[in-house]
């Protein structure tokens, strides 16, 4: 009861904070504040910062013909401006107003693409530039737009006449002043950090007094120190956040250098920590482990970012501040979640996947978590975030953490994580010829009186992954048959893996031109059930899962093993 009361208190505290933020935002967008956003119009853009995000000239052509493939959805405008039509998809609208798609016009490198970019920016200024409201002026979207307009100003202003040139710079100045006013009111998380990044870009790219750059640099440093953990992870515990933030920080570092300004130590330190962290979460095929909001990986994006990593060593094996462990040898990679839930303010994408793991061998994934369908239907998100969608154990088919799914609060907060493990001790047990860890969580202690302990050990040059899952009462009390001790340990199989029984009735996981692995369990006969893999590039895919089902009063500890029986050629870990 005390836990439920505490979760409820945290939730309503978050509601109150968000109501206050929205009220302040409405005030700052109203007539009483709007005069503060007017002022001197910059004369020119001093420098266009680089953009590391991948660009495709074909998308520029699609946009020219009125087809907008944004946020996983294609919208045809029928000759109208995209800012004139009502598209119900919130993600598509945010991407449209964020203007990151300008990079495709830059990649096209034609006068036609530049003219189309200029026309679309002109449409936005005419329809949204004078009215601060709606999705277009959400602070997070505004920050993306400010960065994109600065990065691609050379394309937008190519061949521009003076009236448009002035209108562009005037609108940009208004957005920067608005963002400067709103940044301190934004909720914790990567959008607030991106706002500070955008303001630093603006202070470097536009004529501004030295005090403006000092203030932007100081605020950026404070936000980086708060959000980037000592091991390089982000406070949200989402691997995708590391990738997204690096895609902004690396060009910002270059812009400081191009302007002969000294970047803050916090910026340099954050990049130095985050690049190894990105490699920590990376499997050998280039994809990121599917934890806490991570969906499908676009591999080239990661490769582009990692070209800036000069360390060139093996990834770290231990990320204690982010709450993850990595085992790696013989071309085999195991990544596991061994951390506490993130703070409630940044938990809107967090998963109930404590002690879940993924296993890849060479460039093939074998054991995975379901991940999320990044651009898919919102109704799938609760399923993807549940413990049952992860390669870990559930008790009584219940998630180890709770989420707020209130329809009344969804528009205000989304669906934050409001309960979960409070203690997740973890200990490395590396030895000569083996790597491993033992971790335990208490996410089920309050409701069912159980602790879940998992030990994973990778040995024999990566040929054997040994696992142990143990369930015990706090204090070591005996487990009694109460009807509330039903355990299910799941191992989700990647959709590309074939699963069959050999002549010894063992489960064999194999794929074409890849390794073969045999799954065995000492205490429980494994079963095979249907599953869904949400993180496919083309959307959800049918898959299967290996299930160990038993009662803790009968069996309190299970031992299982994945053994590599044939080894395909593959590069070593890097």
TrEMBL record:
Domain Heparinase II/III-like C-terminal: start-end pairs: 313-561
Entry keyword GTP-binding: no
Keywords: Lyase, Periplasm, Signal
Protein name listed in UniProt: Heparinase II/III family protein
Cell location: Periplasm
InterPro entries: Chondroitin_lyas, Hepar_II_III_C
PANTHER family: HEPARIN-SULFATE LYASE
Organism, scientific name: Mesorhizobium shangrilense
Keyword Metal-binding tagged: no
Coiled-coil intervals, chain numbering: none
């Amino acid at each position: 009861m005390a836990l439920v009361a505490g979760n409820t208190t945290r939730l309503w505290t978050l509601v109150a904070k968000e109501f206050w933020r929205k009220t302040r935002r409405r005030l700052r967008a109203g007539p009483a504040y709007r005069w503060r956003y007017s002022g001197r119009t910059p004369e020119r853009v001093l420098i266009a910062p680089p953009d590391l995000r991948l660009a495709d000239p074909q998308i520029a052509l699609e946009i020219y013909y009125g087809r907008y493939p944004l946020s996983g959805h294609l919208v045809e405008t029928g000759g109208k401006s995209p800012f004139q039509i009502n598209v119900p998809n919130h993600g598509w609208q945010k991407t449209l107003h964020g203007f990151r798609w300008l990079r495709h016009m830059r990649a096209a490198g034609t006068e036609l693409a530049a003219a189309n970019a200029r026309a679309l920016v002109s449409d936005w200024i005419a329809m949204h530039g004078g009215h601060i409201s709606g999705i277009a002026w959400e602070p997070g979207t505004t920050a993306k737009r400010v960065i994109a307009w600065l990065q691609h100003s050379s394309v937008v202003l190519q061949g521009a006449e003076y009236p448009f040139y002035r209108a562009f710079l005037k609108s940009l100045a208004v957005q920067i002043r608005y963002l400067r006013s709103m940044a301190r009111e934004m909720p914790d998380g990567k959008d607030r950090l991106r706002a500070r990044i955008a303001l630093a870009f603006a202070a470097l790219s536009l004529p501004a007094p030295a005090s403006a750059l000092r203030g932007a640099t100081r605020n950026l440093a404070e936000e980086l120190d708060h959000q980037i953990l000592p091991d390089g992870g982000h406070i949200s515990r989402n691997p995708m956040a590391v990738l997204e933030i690096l895609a902004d920080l690396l060009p910002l570092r270059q812009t400081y250098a191009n302007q002969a300004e000294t970047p803050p130590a916090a910026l340099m330190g954050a990049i130095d920590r985050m690049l190894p962290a990105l490699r920590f979460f990376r499997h050998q095929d280039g994809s990121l482990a599917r934890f806490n909001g991570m969906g499908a990986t676009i591999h080239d994006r990661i490769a582009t970012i990692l070209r800036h990593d000069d360390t060139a060593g093996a990834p770290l094996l231990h990320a204690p501040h982010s709450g993850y462990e990595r085992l790696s040898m013989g071309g085999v990679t195991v990544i596991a979640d061994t951390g506490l839930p993130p703070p409630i303010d940044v938990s809107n994408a967090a998963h109930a996947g404590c002690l879940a793991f993924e296993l890849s061998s060479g460039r093939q994934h074998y054991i995975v978590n379901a991940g999320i369908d990044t651009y898919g239907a919102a109704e799938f998100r609760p399923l993807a975030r549940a413990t049952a969608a992860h390669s870990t154990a559930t008790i009584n088919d219940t998630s180890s953490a709770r989420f707020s799914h209130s329809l009344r609060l969804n528009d205000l907060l989304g669906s934050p994580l409001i309960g979960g493990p409070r203690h997740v001790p973890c200990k490395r047990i590396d030895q000569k010829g083996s790597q491993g860890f033992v971790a335990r969580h208490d996410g089920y202690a309050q409701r069912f009186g159980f602790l879940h302990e998992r030990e994973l050990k990778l040995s024999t040059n990566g040929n054997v992954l040994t696992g142990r899952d143990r369930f015990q009462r706090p204090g070591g009390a005996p487990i009694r048959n109460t009807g509330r001790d039903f355990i299910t340990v799941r191992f989700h199989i990647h959709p590309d893996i074939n699963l069959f029984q050999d002549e010894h009735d063992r489960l064999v996981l194999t794929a074409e031109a890849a390794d073969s692995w045999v799954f065995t369990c000492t205490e429980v006969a494994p079963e095979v059930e249907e599953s869904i893999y949400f993180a496919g590039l083309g959307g959800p895919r049918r898959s299967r899962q290996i299930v160990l089902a038993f009662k803790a009063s009968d069996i309190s500890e299970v031992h299982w093993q994945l053994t590599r029986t044939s080894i395909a050629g593959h590069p070593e870990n890097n």
